[in-house]
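Quick entry, no commentary yet.
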Amino acid sequence: MSLGISFSAGAAARRRPMYTKVRSAAASTALADYALLEEDGVVKIPPHLSLEEGATLPCAAVTVWHAIFEHAKLKAGDTVLLQGTGGVSIFGLQFARTTGIRAIITSSSDEKLVRAKALGAAFGINYRTTPDWEKAAMEFTGGTGVDHVVEVGGAATLTRSFGAICAGGKVTLIGGLSGGATELNPALIFARRANVQGISVGSTQMFEAMNRAVAANAIKPVIDKVFSFADAQAAYRHMAAGAHFGKIVIKVA
């Protein structure tokens, strides 16, 4: 969920002049007309984006940027597996496409997989019809395995994520949509010599590096639907239904 917020220069202008548009995802500012933000936590929106588009960048985009480029340090020709078609995975797909990284994406919807392939996914797996999706990923990579999994599923997907990676592959833990994994067999890590790291969003420096890439490649966030402030409850219901593709935005003003 993202919020579009208008901001007047104030203290942030001392750090970088002419801050006229920003976005915030701080929990304490959710659904607020006005918000008091930390100066060091404010960055400028890429100039080609609207407020609504800019509002999608915190959390989802920064988190997957952190996962792919800071933790996994992927490069052109590497392969990443992205789970689902929510904001994190769709941003990951867009970043992969612009840097020559092959992206495999999973979904329970064939229609969403078609849309993901149109955005540049090299391979799509329907995890409803192919519950052993890690085997499909392994087969797609010729038995080698993927270099990186962006793990958002939690209890229902973590074991399979280890089954999808190559020797020395990386798993970035960023979510638990199916519930937190309460048990982890260390043998899964040893068998793949895996590198596992949990992350929480990212730094201001990562955000600014990501924004430079967004601007240079004219990346446009994929917005499923924009809701008005008055329809905030409908936005949350839409998110809970899990039918969205990309980001959901609540337009504050």
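second:
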Amino acid sequence: MSPGGAGWRSAAPVVDLLVVLKERLDTGEPFEVMSGYRSPATNAMLVATTGGVAAASLHVAGMAIDIRVPGVPLGRVRDAARALREGRVGYYPASNFVHVDVGRIRSW
């Protein structure tokens, strides 16, 4: 995915979502990104080897990101993302990250 290419353009809405989420969290800490854009091949490998990875993941479209924020409780990140009502929010406390995307609104 090269800067200015189609993948970057499709990622813009999820980046905008992160900007708003950072304002909502009112923290100067950076996001730690666990997973962002995934190539179709990488996603297929994860589907085959890891539980809970969606075959039609929005990560492949550059529309999803898995994050945590140092010093901010994971539940607070989840709650702030849900309150935005801008897409899907997945909560993975055992893996210490929150999934956010710009798909239809739902949470798990």
